[in-house]
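Friendly challenge for the regulars: who can give me the C-alpha cells for this chain first? No prize, just bragging rights.
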Amino acid sequence: MTTIKLEDNRRKDLLGIDNSDRENLSKIANIKIADLTLDDHPNLLVFPHDLNHYGDDISEDRILELQGDQIITGNIMGFVGVNDTQIDIRSRFAAKDENDYFLHYMLQKVFAINLFDIKHSTSQEEVFDFLLYLFPNFLQKALGQGLYKKYRRFEYNDTNIRGPIDVSRHIRQNIPFRGTVAYSTREHSYDNEVTQLIRHTIEYIKTKAHGAHILSNNKETKEAVNQIVMATQTYNVRERQKVINQNLRPVRHPYYSAYTELQKICLQILRHESLKYGQEKDKVYGILFDGAWLWEEYLNTIFEEHHLNITHARNKAREKGIPLYEGSKSYYPDFYMKVEGDTEGEKSFVLDAKYKRLDKGKHRDEQTGENSISICREDLFQMITYMHVLPAKHCALLYPIEPNEETNDQDKKVIESKARELNGLKGKICGYGLKISQANERKSFWDEMQELEKKLNESISDFLKGDNQGAQNSQNG
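First reply, four minutes later:
Bragging rights claimed.
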C-alpha cells in the first residue's frame, strides 16, 4: 500500500510515483467533488456537507488535478484512498514533522472537540479517529431538530384492544381462550431503527480509547447521549447487525434533515472493520475538509470568543444576506457590520475570508516598504459589490500568511497591508494576514495561536473603529 503525501494549494511532480498509483489517482483527479460524493462512494465524507455552503460552490472543486507530470491541489485537505493508494493532503501550514497542528486546531475550534495528539496519516485508523471526535457535534445538531420519531408497528396481546385483530396470532397464542386478544397498532415512537443506530454507536464508542471522554466532553454532549439512552429502552447489543441493515437506506425527512449525516457517520463507525482501503475495487474512501469553509468558520469562532459584534452571513439558512436590489435574491459576504443610520457607510464594513494562496508577487512594496497584496479581479469585484450595496466604506481581506513568507520583522503577529483608496464612491480596501504557528509541540502551538488570535482581534477592533494608526501600532506590539 502506497501513501502519497501532499499539501493544499501546491504542485508536486509525479516523478517516483509508479503506474498503478497514477492509475488510482486518475480515478479521483480532475473530477468534481459533487460527482464523487454520490451513492457510488458512500464512504467518502466531505465537509461542509452542503456543497454550496455560504454560496461557495465547492461541488465544482476537485480533490486534486493531474496536469502533465504534476499533481495540483486546491483548498481540499484530509485523507482519501482509492484501492491500495492512499493520499494524505495536509495543510500547507503544517510543520515539517508528521503533525498537522493547524488543521487539527481549526477542527477543534469549529467542531468544539478535543482531538488530543493525532498523528497525520492516511491510514483508515486516522479516518476512524476523526469520525469518533466528530460524532458528538453531529449528534447535537440532529437532536437540535428534536428526537427522531417515526411510525412503528407494535404487537399486543391483552384486553385493551386498540387496533386490528391479528387472527392467526390470536389463534396461535390464545386458544384455548385466555381472555386476551392479539392485535397490532401503528404508533409514533422514539425507539426506532435510527435512534437504535445512534445508541449502538454510543455503546461502541464507549469501548474505544478516549471514548468516555468523547461522550462526556461537555454538558451538551452528556445530555444528548442521555436522551438517546432513555429513548432506546429495547437496546440489545446482539442486534447490531440487524440495526445496521435497517439503516442502509438514508433518512429522507425534511424536518429531520440533520439525521441524514449523523446516520452516515454512525454507519461508518459501526462498519469500520469492513471499510478498509482497497476492499472494494475502485471505491473511494476518506474524510475531506474544504479549507475555505474551515478558515471562515474558524475566524468566526475568534470573533465570537472576543465578542465582536460582527454578522456572519449564512447562505444555507438563508439568513443575514444582502439583496442587490429590491426583490432580488440575497448575496452573502463572509462577515460584515451594518450600522443603523449610517447611510454613507462611514462606520459600516465588510470582511472577506480567503484561505487560498493570494495572487501576489512581493509582499512588500520596494519603494515605500509598506505591505501590499494583490487580489484577483473576481474577488476584488465581489468585495466592491458588497461595499456598494451594504453600503460600507471599509473592507478588509483576512488571510493566513504563507509559512515561507518573508517579513522585515519576524516578531510581527499580524501583517496589515497598505489600505487602497477606491475611486468613484470612495472607500478603502486593506488586508490582514494572520501568522500561523510553526511550533512542533501541541501545547506550544495552541498557546502561540491563542496569542496570534488576540493580536488579530486587536487589529480588527482598531479597523472597525477606523483607527488605522492604532491597527499599525497593535501589529508591532
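The chain is about 35% helix and 20% strand. Residues 346 and 393 are 5 Å apart (CA to CA). Your move, everyone else.
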